[in-house]
Amino acid sequence: MRLQLDAGNTRIKWRVYDQAKVVAAGSDLRQTLEDKPEWYLSLKEVWVSSVHTEQDTWIKSIFPMAFFAQSQVNCAGLSNSYEDVHKMGVDRWLAMLAVWQRQPDQTHIVIDAGTAITLDIIDGFGRHVGGYICPGFNLMKGSLLNGTKKVWAEDEWQLGRAPGNRTQLCVDHGIQDMVACWLERHCTLQPDAKITLTGGDGPRLSALLTKKISYQADLVLDGLAVYFQYKKADK
């Protein structure tokens, strides 16, 4: 019985494997553990992707046997462009590792739409060309509303990109169109790339884009499995 964790800035996604089969999964590990799930006492391994130090401390207190993934110089034919690879968020590395392992020798664009929106480019030789990190939808909206006195909008988003005829639409559509235009520009610069999208805001972003993309909700967890598969093979 193996538990895989994707600890982001706002939540801890999880899934439990029994042999090669997913037997349980969810998006809020803390809440799940309060309900004392049956699988908890049967765990043999805990694999973790984490970008949040406070989450790390809590995870270690609950699961002393947890193993934490780290960004690498290379793995499975994928190479990292960072001079100091440990400064790359491990979630970005694992997401790239997942798509490259599925389709090597292919140009990829990997987008993770969460608290931040990241975009990473992999060339056909498995080299991470580089990437971008921008504020996510809610960070942009919160910054705009907190930094202006006469701009007001409800928290709930109105999906779309068309020009707005009231402030709510102007704010929501403006942010969404800006993000979509930015991503579409980079997709145009890489016409042969396979585009893979993940993250909590992935479904909304997918609906905004005109280019065909693949949405993979558990891309980081998939990359976590690849990471530890190669770790075990190296031993």
What does this entry look like structurally?
Strand 4, helix 2 and strand 5 form a beta-alpha-beta unit. The radius of gyration is 19 Å and the shape is globular. It has 7 helices and 12 strands. By secondary structure, it is α/β, with parallel strands linked by helices. The model has no long low-confidence stretch (mean pLDDT 93). It has a 5-stranded mixed beta sheet with strand order 3-2-1-4-5, sandwiched between helices. It has a 5-stranded mixed beta sheet with strand order 10-9-8-11-12, sandwiched between helices. The protein has a two-stranded antiparallel sheet with strand order 6-7.
Give the integer mean of the pLDDT values: 93
| Count of runs of 4 or more consecutive helical residues | 7
How many E strands? 12
Q: How would a crystallographer describe the biggest sheet? A: 5 strands, mixed
The amount of helix comes to: 25-40%
Radius of gyration: 19 Å
**Biggest sheet: strands side by side, in what order?**
3-2-1-4-5
Strand content: 25-35%
User: Which runs of at least 5 residues are low in confidence (pLDDT < 50)?
Assistant: none
Globally, the shape reads globular
What is the element string, with H for helices and E for strands?
EEEHEHEEEHEEEHHEHEH
Structural class: alpha/beta
What is the straight-line distance between the termini? 21 Å
Name its key features:
5-stranded mixed β-sheet; alpha/beta; 235 residues
Please summarize what this structure is.
This protein has helices spanning 29-34, 53-62, 90-102, 137-147, 167-189, 202-208, 219-234, and strands at 2-7, 12-18, 21-26, 45-50, 66-68, 74-75, 78-79, 108-113, 116-122, 128-135, 194-198, 214-215. With 235 residues, the chain is an alpha/beta fold. β2 and β3 (21-26) form a beta hairpin.
